[in-house]
What we know:
This protein is of the alpha/beta class and 338 residues long. It has helices at 3-31, 38-50, 64-74, 90-94, 131-134, 136-143, 178-181, 195-205, 219-231, 236-248, 258-263, 270-286, 294-299, 301-305, 313-317, 322-332; strands spanning 53-57, 75-76, 79-83, 95-101, 107-113, 120-124, 145-148, 151-154, 160-165, 184-189, 217-218, 264-266, 310-311. The longest helix is centred in the N-terminal third of the chain and has 29 residues, at 3-31.
Amino acid sequence: xxxxxxxxxxxxxxxxxxxxxxxxxxxxxxxxxxxxxxxxxxxxxxxxxxxxxxxxxxxxxxxxxxxxxxxxxxxxxxxxxxxxxxxxxxxxxxxxxxxxxxxxxxxxxxxxxxxxxxxxxxxxxxxxxxxxxxxxxxxxxxxxxxxxxxxxxxxxxxxxxxxxxxxxxxxxxxxxxxxxxxxxxxxxxxxxxxxxxxxxxxxxxxxxxxxxxxxxxxxxxxxxxxxxxxxxxxxxxxxxxxxxxxxxxxxxxxxxxxxxxxxxxxxxxxxxxxxxxxxxxxxxxxxxxxxxxxxxxxxxxxxxxxxxxxxxxxxxxxxxxxxxxxxxxxxxxxxxxx
Length: 338
């Protein structure tokens, strides 16, 4: 074997091992505060390391905010939390010009940047803000910059938005438009803890001891790990599987089951396929593989596609949601052989 090839393979193994170590340490630190919700924790870490944004949906009190805040503490990143309300304006997020008094006693206008200028942004109860305010996040999430008047501010790297929303309460909420939902790499559904997990939560939160979280990484390391993720190769059969899953969610196509044509108003865009492959690359690394397999693509299909499938009136009337339709697509699309 060529010495250069051997050296590259050794470097790749070393990077993959470092990826596993950092992921394990982050997961362990979050576990010192969070109880259970392993699938949600893994989904959040997968999205962060893949370079995407996350939407966490669940009823209040399940630890969504705690999870994101704990992740911010475990990483040496600039962290900010925005509590969305119906009266919030875009300037409250992006920043605005304020009148300040100088040492000479004179007043002048000075730009004060908003909380969006941060590495890790917790957008708490994002669906409580009006569409005008929600749209202030679109440029930041896609272009990683914000424009205020004639001022354009580049956001620091890494940049990640982790938003939470309550799926039950409808009064005073504004559903996220499809264009904004599509910007989230994953949508994760946070469920109720088990009986034993509730006991553990009570033991941790009603006593005198408070769990602490140690720093386990920084911005440079996260950026380096994202490069490792991007470097994971995708064989043709795995990419073909991701493409067919995406196409199978679109009504009028030939790859999906009949119920997609009958019950889907809008299917996944190419961003869905991108989410599938990026998430699958992280899954492959966590499994100790150096190439993506179809099983890795299938493992991230639900969080990648459930928010990109919009159902029609018939589906609503029959109580069928995007979750069931994505599962039907997974069952229908054959897994290609390597």
